[in-house]
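Translate sequence into structure tokens.
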Amino acid sequence: MIEDVLKDAERRMKKTLEHVKEEFASVRTGRASASLVNKIMVNYYGQHTPLVQLASIGVPEPNLLVISPYDKSILGEIEKAIQQSDLGLNPVNDGNVIRLPVPKLTEERRKELVKLVRAKAEEGRVAIRNIRRDAIEDLRAFEKEGEITKDDLHRGQEEIQKLTDRYIAETDEMLKNKERELMEV
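Result follows.
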């Protein structure tokens, strides 16, 4: 019973950590990376489709992305989707591929991105703490129904707290690395 609650909490915390990692990957540093465009959705024959399903994305230079659509007729839609995204990048459409130059970040933009990344990390920490709260509530319900003892409840709470501390520490480490990456000139 306690093991089930712990396994579920750990599974949910892992998922939260993966989500934070994906969020961090979508925040651009001064370098081009295919993950920058992972979340861009393109209007493809009336359906919102992820860009990565419609085109191959290459990084020929550290500050350039090249997007080669499998279907050339959607170049305009891809260009529009990139312009409407929050990337702040200007696509160059040559009729065959879209070149996406990634300019060096200004000091001001770096600081904005650090704030954004900190906010995303805090959302992750809050989600992890909410998972802890839910797990402890489950344990208390089991104790109230007489399915586990007070000692089991106490032990379970300690285990959940250790799990929470570990995942929050991992989130903080990821944040530290991303901040370092963003502030690097």
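Note: The first strand starts at residue 41 and ends at 44.
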